[in-house]
Amino acid sequence: MIYSFFIFTAALAVLVYFIRNKTISHSLVFGYVIVMIGLGLYLIPLLGQTLNEYFFSDRLGIIFYVVLILVSLFSAIHYVKFVNDRNVKEADVALHNAGTIFFTGAIIGILFTSHFGILWAFMEATTLGASVLIYHNRNQDALEATWKYLYVCSIGIAIAFAGVLFLGFAAQQIGHIDFTFSAIKANASTLNTVWLKACFLLIVTGFSVKMGLVPLFNVDIDAKDASPSQVGASLSSVLMNAGFVAIYRFYEAFSTTSILPWMNKLLMLTGLLSLFFAAVYVLRVKNVKRMFAYSSMEHASLVIIAFSCGGLGYFAAVLHLIMHSLVKSSLFFQVSQMHRIFSSKLDENIGSYLRVNPLGGLVMLLGFLSIIAMPPSGMLISELYMFQALIAKDYWWVALIVLMLVLIIIYGLAVKMLGIIFLKKNSSNINLQGATPYESALQLALIVIVFYIGLFRPQIIVESIQLAIQSLPA
Fold first, then answer.
1. Cβ–Cβ contacts within 10 Å for residue 141, how many?
2. Residue 117 vs residues 56, 250, 397: alpha-carbon distances, Å
3. Nearest to 223 by CA among 326, 302, 279, 143
4. With CB atoms 3.0 to 4.6 Å apart as the test, which of 51, 90, 170, 348 could cross-link to 195 if both were Cys?
5. Burial class of residue 186 (count of CB atoms within 10 Å of its CB; 0-12, 13-18, 19+)
6. Pair 220, 152: CB distance under 8 Å
7. Residue ranges of the alpha helices (H) in 87-226?
8. How far is Cα 367 from Cα 330, in angstroms, rounded to an integer?
9. 70: which residues sit within 8 A by CB, 6+ positions away?
10. DSSP 297-334
């Protein structure tokens, strides 16, 4: 079944590329989402089982797969409006939709592969798929962002490949050649710790470009700015999740060895440095899309910091990623509508948004409150769990640094976001026809889900996350 799905994905991507009818092209993307739902219904009853030598069905993959389906569906809906509004050429629509299917299929491979080598290959495939999507607007900024993304991501993937090779060297020393997660984890205690440390260091460095973390975060910011908003939504949500899952797989495999404390320190240092850079840039940025991109960097940092604490931090990291994916997607979707109304991405040109576009302004306001973890946002819960995990480990100084940097980011976001939402500015060329209530309603639905999680903490989500991380050390 899983092989058939990937063959279908590749064939559909090729077919969509050659279709020049926009309606048929969009319909095939929606059809692919329906097939994704069918695959999910097939995988859920098989939780915890091996599908074949290269793939398995596990709870962590299923959790982020559900998020992927939601974001993919909403992205497809918003892209239809984007195409109609800008009268995008048939050939560009075909390439974008083909790239979307290819990119989504690669992420699905990352979520469900049980083999380190295959995981790396699918991660490389996301680079190719994302590059097609980033170049959609066919202008100088898009071209520059695409080439930067291809170049730096290729460097990152090459670094990660070196990490995989080091793991191979370590396995060869004991005569072990099986590269599945379970086999490496079972034999990890007998592997040379120097090779394992080198592997994990290179994996975190290489895959940082996918999560938007130090050191390879810059191209991620440029890509989200230059690409259409629905592409930025995917890069800030499902691709970030895929990067986390990739790092998680290596971490889990090595977690039974003596390098666990070292891995935690590396992740914490990466998170703190990333959070620092996010705070610095948020204060300076004027472009709304780049502001949200740096906000994504902030939340990726919080996820890694929480995860490095272990225990409750594991739970906080996964929960935070789920809710961030929904909120940040809704905000990026809304930016597309805001750009149609004001013909600008600069905060100085956008004002009184709640008055100009009441439903869209409400999305911006509630989304802003969510990403700064104001109640009843579920992101408050995950961030409180993160601080609780830090204090439980006696990392008081880390908690204070994180709190200070988060407050700086909140200040930077508040100054710009509240000005956009409430302050009257000298905005010209306001196009009220750009406001689309049904788009804002869809975005509002994603934020409502996050509020619902924060208020009621559904048992199915809590239990799913707990079962997903149960193999990690306490």
1. 12
2. 14, 12, 38
3. 143
4. 170
5. middle
6. no
7. 90-112, 116-134, 140-173, 181-187, 193-211, 218-226
8. 7
9. 326, 446
10. HHHHHHHHHHHHT-THHHHHHHHHHHHHHHHHHHHHHH
Q: Which pLDDT score, from 0 to 100, does residue 427 have?
A: 66
In this structure, what token pair is assigned to residue 64? 């982020």
Question: For residues 193 and 185, is the Cβ–Cβ distance under 8 A?
Answer: no
The two structure tokens encoding residue 330: 């809704």
CA distance 81 to 87: 10
Residue with tokens 């000005």: 419
Torsion of CA 250, 255, 258, 261, to 10 degrees: 90
Residue 22's pLDDT is: 97
Structure tokens at 350: 């956008």
- Residues 442 and 294: their CA atoms lie apart, in Å, by 24
Map tokens 């050191």 to a residue.
215
Mean pLDDT of the chain: 95
- Give the number of C-alpha atoms closer than 13 A to the C-alpha of residue 77, restricted to the C-beta side: 17
Give the pLDDT band of residue 40 (cuts 50, 70, 90): very high
Residues 236 and 106 sit within 8 Å (Cβ to Cβ): no
Is 80 exceeded by the pLDDT of residue 406?
Answer: yes
Is it the case that residue 428 has pLDDT exceeding 70? no
Contact partners, residue 342, CB within 8 Å, separation at least 6: 349, 350, 427, 429, 430, 431
Angle between helices 378-392 and 396-422 (to 10 degrees): 160
- Cβ atoms of 324 and 296 within 8 Å: the answer is yes
